[in-house]
Amino acid sequence: MMDANSKIYVAGHNGMVGSAVVRRLAKDGYPNIVVRSHRELDLTDPAAVDAFYASERPDVAVIAAARVGGIGANSRANSSFLYENAMIAMNTVWSAARHGVKRLLFLGSTCIYPRLAPQPIREDALLSGSLEKTNEGYALAKISGLKLCEFIRRERGLVYHSLMPTNLYGPGDNYDIENGHVLPTLVRKFDTARGKVVLWGTGSATREFLHVDDLAGACLFALGLENPPDLMNVGSGEEVTIRQLAGMVAKAVGSNAEIVWDSSKPDGTPRKLCDTSLIRSLGWKSEIPLEKGLEMTIRSYREELASGKIRL
């Protein structure tokens, strides 16, 4: 468990998730936060990561770093998503254990579960079936990371554990139309639309969304547990179709653009709702409903756009 004097390393602090974790740590009174940009520390370089841990000796590590992208980016570059994310996971977790980091939280994604897993998806669905092919590389890398945490905990007694968040959105997201995730891509498309917006698939797939500030709260909650489960899902427990989501985003942005569905493109996993009964039974639940979260996101998107700090 952490205390106010804990030295906490947050990997990936410039990303949407890592920056949310840093904000929440600072808000909750943890002043000793260690971060490194990609320019300062390449997490795919095992020697560099090992040297970092040897020098800094953090008490706690939160591994929020990853190469991420939407269906298009993943399906075009499964090999890169597998290699880079596996290297990040292996290096950050293994070297942490090697240099005595007592507590580590690894962040993955619910894409680790089988494509046709029973819904809502329980943690024990892991490795029970075939993965979604469009993001198989990313999923395999995340599975490797959470399993490494599990094995280290079993063999060495270090409390290394994992959270699997559902689809995330919020401040600091990547609004790249070609490579981004579905929700920020929709925000950008509707905001820049001139007449119509072409969207992938049929819109029939359902997804669950969680505001990144809710995830940050879940991270601190999990780190506050003396004996947490090896793996816990984190989600809102609510799902919408992509067609419904598109309508909600268009309304939030204030767009009247016509929506055209390109059914020649993939929908991805038909349904992906995670079972969050485990983490809820321990005392955590999400606090930001999707409609409110969208309003917050559009506001932060426009602030980032005006300041020139937006990720595109």
* Main beta-sheet strand count, sense and barrel state: 6 strands, parallel
Beta-strand content: 15-25%
Alpha-beta classification:
alpha/beta
Radius of gyration: 19 Å
- Amino-to-carboxy terminus distance: 37 Å
Number of strands: 12
Strand order of the largest sheet: 2-1-3-4-5-9
CATH class category of the domain at 8-174 and 209-238 and 272-289: Alpha Beta
Q: What is the residue-mean pLDDT, rounded to a whole number?
A: 94
In oligomeric terms, what are we looking at?
A: single chain
Q: Order of helices and strands, N to C?
A: EHEHEHHEHEEHEEHEEHEEHH
Query: What's the CATH topology name of the domain at 8-174 and 209-238 and 272-289?
Result: Rossmann fold
Q: From the coordinates shown, what is the CATH architecture of the domain at 8-174 and 209-238 and 272-289?
A: 3-Layer(aba) Sandwich
Helices and strands in order:
Elements: E1 8-11, H1 16-27, E2 33-34, H2 46-56, E3 60-63, H3 71-76, H4 78-98, E4 103-107, H5 136-156, E5 159-165, E6 167-169, H6 182-191, E7 196-200, E8 206-211, H7 212-223, E9 231-234, E10 239-241, H8 242-253, E11 258-262, E12 271-272, H9 277-281, H10 290-307
Parallel strand pairs: 1-2, 1-3, 3-4, 4-5, 5-9, 6-8, 7-11, 8-12
Antiparallel strand pairs: 8-10
